Amino acid sequence: MSASSQHSRFAPDRGLTGRMVITMFLIGLLYVGFTGVLIVLLRGAWPLIVLISGGLFVAQFWFSDKITERAMGARPVSPEQYPQLHGTIDRLCAMADMPKPRVAVADNDMPNAFATGRNPQNAVVCVTTGLLRRLEPEELEGVLAHELSHVAHRDVAVMTIAGFLGVLAGMMTRIALYGGFLGGGNRNNNDSNAAIAMLVIPLVSMLVYAISFLLTRLLSRYRELAADRAAAQLTGRPSALASALTKVTGQIAAIPSKDLRQAQPYNAFYFAPALSARETASQLMSTHPTLEQRLAQLARISAQLGH
């Protein structure tokens, strides 16, 4: 049994587990290399660089769920406030034999959902009021099973860490360039070192960000297909999830562009990307597989379950 499914009945996905390990290894290698470049170029400032980079990484990992919740406007809700939502999550968690995550709702007309958290014990599943208003109970069950599979497979934590390392490289670059850490030694050496650092650090930072961006996009697309598969197999109703996907994607396209632009930085976490009908993200840049790919996979699962 794969590591991702040891604590739940969600279908194991060795492909997802392998991709997560490779992504984290490569991005970790990038980050260590980037920190090493900073240490070499900034010399005397290396203890501060290690302290800042390590501190920011730990803070992001430890508080990732709270940071994401606040950014997306999620608020915790009780079973008394949303009995159907809690009831569906209770039933799915019992079916999957996994701990119940915190439940949240975001006051947003865009129909969507997301999950975040560093592990199943510290996870949150959030749906928007727009999603609750538009979906039938069996469609909502499919979406919630999809999000719970992200928690069970722990790919939420990997995506959070992987995405943040690229951002962290940019933050460290700004600190190095504008924090007065360039140089050391006599003035001539100082000027020479500063000139080299001013040139090399931004280039290395951009390279780190670009590679981490592409790696997270590749993982993100695969994990969405894995979550669709796991949700369909757990509930036994791939058609309900397909119906929810079709409805949510169509309704999102009708949301005002201004609201969609505000949501787009968090597309990697959403059940469906916040894109208007006119926007077409290239496959290389997209956080999600196409709707056609997702529906085709669910149709195959439906046929298999029929047999």
Automatic annotation (TrEMBL):
Q: How is this protein situated with respect to the membrane?
A: Multi-pass membrane protein
Name the chain's protein.
Protease HtpX homolog
Sequence similarity: Belongs to the peptidase M48B family.
What top-level branch of life does the organism fall under?
Answer: Bacteria
**Species in which this protein is naturally found:** Kitasatospora cystarginea
Keyword Chloroplast assigned to the entry: answer is no
The cofactor named in the record is: Zn(2+)
Describe how the cofactor binds. Answer: Binds 1 zinc ion per subunit.
Task: For this UniProt record, give its keywords in alphabetical order, as a comma-separated list.
Answer: Cell membrane, Hydrolase, Membrane, Metal-binding, Metalloprotease, Protease, Transmembrane, Transmembrane helix, Zinc
Bilayer-crossing regions: 21-39, 45-63, 156-182, 194-215
Report the locations given in the UniProt record: Cell membrane
Q: Which residues form the Peptidase M48 domain?
A: 81-300
> What is this enzyme's class at the first EC digit?
hydrolase
